Amino acid sequence: MAPSVAEVTQPTDTLANGVAKINLKEVKADKGPSYPFYYPYFDVNEKFPPTEIFEHKDAGLRADPKKPNLLKEGTIVKHISPFLGTEISGVQLSQLSKEGLDELALYVAERKVVAFRNQDFKDIGPDRQIEIAKHFGPIQRHPTSGNVKGYPEFHVVYRDAENDQFREYIGGNRVDRTSWHSDISYEKQPPSTTFFFILDQPDVGGDTFFASQVEAYNRLSPEFQKLLLPLRAVHSAVAQAEHSRQRGGPVRREPVESVHPIVRVHPVTGEKALYVNKGFTRRIVGLKDEESDLILHFLFDHIAKGVDFQIRATYEPGTVVVWDNRVTIHSASGDFDNSFRRHAVRLTPQAEVPIPATEP
Ligand SMILES: [Fe+2]
Question: For the chain, which terminal residue's Cβ has fewer other Cβ atoms within 10 angstroms, N or C?
C-alpha cells in the first residue's frame, strides 16, 4: 500500500477587502480515504473476553531524565503553553530505540501532550505501529468503536459527508460541539501514553483541545483539595455501549464500570491530577445524588472553562500526537463542515490501576 497524502484545497477567492477567503466546504472530487486500509470496520459478531488485570511497570520509570535518546541535537522543540503541549520536529518516532521510547513516556508525562511533525508513522504498517505502542502497555481493544479488520487494537476516528457519528454521539441539539473526556476511563486500568495519527484532515479546523488535569487540580484551594482527596467516583461504559447498540453497532465486551480516585498521582512524575471527565464519570461514591452532582458539575465546569490551562493540538500531514491520558482530558473540535473527511487512528496502551493521592 502506497497511499498518497490528499491534495490540499487552497483558498483561491478573496473578499472585497482583499483578504483571502478560506475554503469552508470541500469542493474537490472525492477520491475516497487516502488510507482505505484504516477505514472503520464494525463487526457486530466480534466479541472480546472481559479485560484481565495485569501488572504495569511504566516505561517512564526506566527513562534517563536528560532524554539523550529522544531529544538529540537538531531537535526543534516549541512549547505551546507553560502547563502542557509541545511541538517537536526532527524526531522520527519509528526510529526510536527502547531507551528512546522510555524517554518518550517520561517526556509525554511531563509535557502531557506532544505533537510530532513530519512522521513516517502512518506508512510503517500496522504491525510496527502496534509494536511501538505496546512498549507502553497492552493495547486496549475498543468495545464499540470502528477498528481495522484483523487489527482490533486500532481505534478509528472517521467523518465524511456520509458519516457523522461524532455529531450523533455528542447529540445533535447542542449549542457547542465540545465533548471533554479522558479516553476509556471506565477501564479498571485506564490508558497512559496514547498515540493518535492523522490520515485525512480538513484544511482548517479539526484540531483537538487538551486541558491539564494537573493544573486544574493545582488551581483549587487547599481546603477544596483536601475535601476531594478521599473521594472516589464511578466511571461507566454503559452509555457508550447503549449508544452503539441503538445504532446497530457492536458491543464486543459487556460494558464495565470502575471506581477511581478523584485525585490520582502520576506514577513517574508524582504529579497530582484531577481524574474526572464529563464523558464517563457518573457519580461520587457515598454521596447523595445532589451532593455528587454539585461537586462533579463544578469540576467539569472548572476544567472546561480553564482556557489558560488548555491548548489546541493542530494537525499537519504526518503529525502524530502523543498524550498522557492520566493527566489530561481532551475534546475533538467539531468546527469543520462535514463535507470534509477527517480520518485518524488511535492506539491506546493501558497502564496502572489509578493511584489515589493521599495528601494535597
Ligand atoms: Fe478521545
Answer: N
Residue the block writes with cell 457547542? 176
C-alpha 332 to ligand 1 mean position (Å): 7
B/e letters for 36-49, b = 16+ CB within 10 Å, e = fewer, are: eebebbbeeebeee
Ligand 1 centroid–CA 266 distance in Å is: 19
Bridge-based pairing state of the strands 76-79 and 86-89 = antiparallel
In the reported structure, the alpha carbon of residue 251 is separated from the centroid of ligand 1 by a whole-number distance in angstroms of 18
Kindly give the distance from the C-alpha atom of residue 223 to the centroid of ligand 1, in angstroms, as a whole number: 31
> What is the pLDDT at residue 4?
41
Cα(238) to centroid of ligand 1, in Å?
16
Q: What's the CA-to-centroid distance between 270 and ligand 1, angstroms? A: 24
CA of 300 to the centre of ligand 1 (A): 16
Expressed in angstroms and rounded, the spacing between residue 325 Cα and the centre of ligand 1 is: 9
Topology of domain 36-356 in CATH is Double-stranded beta-helix (3.60.130)
pLDDT in tens, 145-199: 999 999 999 999 999 888 766 666 666 778 888 999 999 999 999 999 999 999 9
